[in-house]
Amino acid sequence: MESTLQSTIESIGYNVYLQDSLNELANFVETGNYSKFFILTDEFTSVHCLPLVEEKFAGKTYDLIEINAGEENKNIDFCIGVWKMLIDFGADRRSLLINLGGGVITDLGGFAASTFKRGIDFVNVPTTLLSQVDASVGGKTGIDMDSIKNIIGTFTQPKAVFIDQAFLKTLPPREILSGLAEMLKHGLIVDAAYWEALKNSDLSIPSIELIGQSVVIKNRIVISDPTEKSHRKALNFGHTVGHAVETYSLDNDKDHLTHGEAIAIGMICESWLSVKKTGLSEAEVNDIVKVLTRLYPKYQLPESNFDAMIELMKKDKKNEGNTINCTLLKSIGTYAINQICTEDELRESLKYYASL
Amino acid sequence: MESTLQSTIESIGYNVYLQDSLNELANFVETGNYSKFFILTDEFTSVHCLPLVEEKFAGKTYDLIEINAGEENKNIDFCIGVWKMLIDFGADRRSLLINLGGGVITDLGGFAASTFKRGIDFVNVPTTLLSQVDASVGGKTGIDMDSIKNIIGTFTQPKAVFIDQAFLKTLPPREILSGLAEMLKHGLIVDAAYWEALKNSDLSIPSIELIGQSVVIKNRIVISDPTEKSHRKALNFGHTVGHAVETYSLDNDKDHLTHGEAIAIGMICESWLSVKKTGLSEAEVNDIVKVLTRLYPKYQLPESNFDAMIELMKKDKKNEGNTINCTLLKSIGTYAINQICTEDELRESLKYYASL
Lengths: 356, 356
What we know:
Two copies of one chain form a homodimer. In chain A, 47% of the residues lie in helices and 16% in strands. Chain A contains 14 helices and eleven strands. Chain A has helices spanning 21-31, 45-48, 50-57, 76-88, 103-115, 129-135, 173-190, 192-199, 208-224, 239-252, 259-277, 282-295, 306-314, 343-355; strands spanning 8-10, 15-17, 36-42, 63-67, 95-101, 121-126, 143-145, 148-152, 160-162, 324-331, 334-341. In chain A, strands 4-3-5-6 form a four-stranded parallel beta sheet. In chain A, strands 1-2-9 form a three-stranded mixed beta sheet, sandwiched between helices. In chain A, α7 packs parallel to α11. The two termini of chain A are 31 Å apart. Chain A binds chain B through residues 35, 76, 80, 83-84, 87, 92-94, 111, 114-119, 140, 142, 145-146, 148, 150-155, 227, 315, 317, 319-321, and chain B through 35, 76, 80, 83-84, 87, 92-94, 111, 114-119, 140-142, 145-146, 148, 150-155, 227, 315, 317, 319-321. Chains A, B: Catalyzes the conversion of 3-deoxy-D-arabino-heptulosonate 7-phosphate (DAHP) to dehydroquinate (DHQ). Chains A, B: This is 3-dehydroquinate synthase. Chains A, B: Its EC number is 4.2.3.4.
């Protein structure tokens, strides 16, 4: 693991800025040949984060599009709202959409931009840890439908991504933990040293160096396979079970799980499956479980709900035909894609989590 | 102008089949490694065209998605309907969507497929003359919103296009004329000999050779500029005024203009503008007007409606900033893109049409 900070990471045709990022954004806006600017936010980022951006905008005019915060709003209705605002504000093909917020904003805004007039430019200014380490690179845009996450979307790269650690100070601890799950995953799938470094760090607000490491790891994977034909599936570790748990919680819990909390559960279940199927050692699964159960609160997963979760896993867009597909671990730092798991195996893995 | 028929035209990563096309479709379905098949049609094509396709399917199972016919249904509501049907029928990433119908079906189906699970494969089987010569190549997908045509969409290529002249026999004469306008446009912008050939042909049902010529012309243009940065704008001749007239008619007339009828009006107006601005000769504009007024009925365009049409032109997605942009003719067979026209000039061109 390298521990020095790169100030800029090159992704697929664009840069991710890690240092002095809001000045870089101001510079991008100033020098890009755009006719109009739009900022997409939610009611929280418009209070906590927009002022930091506005400070740098110094006189540039822009139109603000504000939507309600929350994963439950990452849907076609809000997307239609964004499209109609762009129409009403007279957006043309040389307009720029600036997505300022968490994954809901960058995913939905990216999708809206990638389909408006068959594609206008957009940049992402991710303001949550999760969106900084996960949604900022990879070119996935999307919205949810019928309780299926990201079922509608495109592969479209932003023109730039600006990551500023200052935004994280406005986040509640649960939101930090949500992003942390993806960072831990990056270590587990390809970088054992990074996993060790995370275990031994103060993670209340991760350093920009650790954040940068995560972006570098994810970036390396998506560059090798932009449209998820093979390597990129590494990033799905924890997500087959995790997405199902997340959707289930979203539909059933008043105070529902965050993405990271659900993925932490998914990683525990899929680590257990990895012992059964791909050779992860008992010592490693114990290490993973110890770290994840220390960081994340236990979620009640009664056996009577397992069937509903299995049904959700069957609808996962990663499946082909009628099988359920997982990415598992061979060891900490090595992954195995396309592992077909039976319903019984998945049920057992949920039982394992429930028994902890 | 070449007059022999190519059986296959190579476009951007896919083939357009002109001969024995339904057998080619059957072969594509048989040999492509797909998990499921979906056919998207409307209530007319499912009666008139689907049986011809089914004959060739011999035992292959597929799910049928039928939507209401008509440009007014090329909207997000029907698109959501298609997405939900794909979800309900269990479409996965290896599913194939077969768009069987006119431009509404190929545009909407292409958009639905290009955004479902971030893109599944689709092929087009255009059943109207318009969709055969216009929508079959170019990779534009889209839906209308707020009376703006194709405002939401993507650039996504189909995996193949199958053109069969047999479908045209089921079309009313107005539908043939609608497609013919695009064929005439192809001659006007880049091929004077093709324009002459069309003038002197029996056009009640154009021959597959003439249809093939149009596809070849359009294909050559879009290959040189897939995302419409420059050359491809040639295809917009007649469409700045034409789209506005079409939208206006769609919103106001019970028996509204077809696309081609509107584009024929647009081509007359923009030919008049071409005389003023880009050197088209009086003799040429007279030739164009003579042919178009012989083929297409006169549309009543009262001066009291010009303002509404100008407003629609201002919303055209081809514009940049606050100007209205046209593609005009330097001569029959030569075009000039990015011609900014004033509102007065456009008003005068409408007056010219009304005076004929």
